[in-house]
Each structure stands twice: as C-alpha cells, then as structure tokens.
Amino acid sequence: MLKIFIDTEFTDFTDTHLISIGLAAESGEEFYAEAPYPAHACSPFVREVVIPLLGQIPHSACEADDLRSRLLTWLKLVRPRNIDIEICFDYQTDWDLFARALDSQIPEWCHPRLISYGINELLRYEFHQKNNLPEHHALYDAQANRYAFREYPPANS
Asked: Among candidates 77, 75, 73, 63, which has minimal Cα distance to 33?
C-alpha cells in the first residue's frame, strides 16, 4: 500500500472549515490546495499564524467546487498500478476534512490510517528546522510527517 501523509489547516476547533490541505506521498509526489473559508470563523491563532502562510505556493488557490476534482485527479495519478492507498493522518480532523473535501465520496481504494503514534516529534522538528519551513502550513506539515513517520511493529499483548 502506498502511504500518503496528509495535513490540513482549518478555521477553528469548534467552527471547523478547511483552509488548506497538503498531501505528501511516500513516493515523492505532493498536492497542495487552499480553499475559500469564512474569515469570521477563524480563531485568533489561525489569523496570526496560519493565514500569513497562505499564498506562498503558486496556483494553489482553488474554488470549493474545483477542490474535489483536483484532489481526485491527483490521487488517481499517484496511485501505482491500482494499488490501495493509505491516507495517513496524525489528527482526526485532517481525515474528516479530507472526506468533506471529497463530498464524503472517498474512493474504495483510499483507506484512513491514524499514525500519530508513529510520528517522531524530534524528526518532525528537525525537518522544519533544516528546511527552514514554518509549522502550521498544510503541505510543509504533511512533508514533515512523511519525514518523521516510523513504522513500528505491533506491541506484544
């Protein structure tokens, strides 16, 4: 199975609207899009930290109607030889917003996988530092998760 690491930025924990979505495949391909969002729903943290990071990647702004088709097209293009894909997320809201971006019509070959247990936080920090990339940018955080994820064997019962 191909692992694709996902991260999202969103307005607030209580009034959650997607702002941006980043995906980083273990094979190297990447996807990033910024969606329209209600500015009034943004928390002070989002206004101060997340919003200033938008607009750094050319051609990433997209209308809500276009996001679903862009995302599906990219997933189909990176999917090797009809192999299933694991959408790896470290926070449940990332999966929820991914599903919402696809109008809850998730392809049967996309499987959710919570990977927070496998993220090495030191490696995540190292990724941001050595690449001089800020945290709380959906693509950079997805890349950091790809870099910092370590597959551990199941714990013995």
From this structure: 63
pLDDT at position 156 is 61
> Please, what are the averages of pLDDT over each run of 10 residues along the chain (157 residues)?
96 93 96 96 95 94 92 93 94 95 94 93 95 96 96 65
**Are the C-beta atoms of 106 and 6 separated by less than 8 Å?**
no
Other C-beta atoms lying within 10 Å of the C-beta of residue 43: 15
Which residues are registered as beta bridge partners of 32?
Answer: 22
Task: Give me the phi and psi of 8, to 5 degrees please.
Answer: -130, 155
Neighbours of 122 (CB within 10 A): 9
The gap from C-alpha 33 to its chain's centroid, in whole angstroms, comes to: 10
Q: Is the pTM of this model over 0.85?
A: yes
Cα–Cα nearest to 43, from 14, 20, 7, 8: 14
Could you tell me whether strands 18-25 and 30-34 are parallel, antiparallel, or unpaired per DSSP bridges? Answer: antiparallel
Q: Which DSSP helix (H) or strand (E) runs through 141?
A: helix 138-148
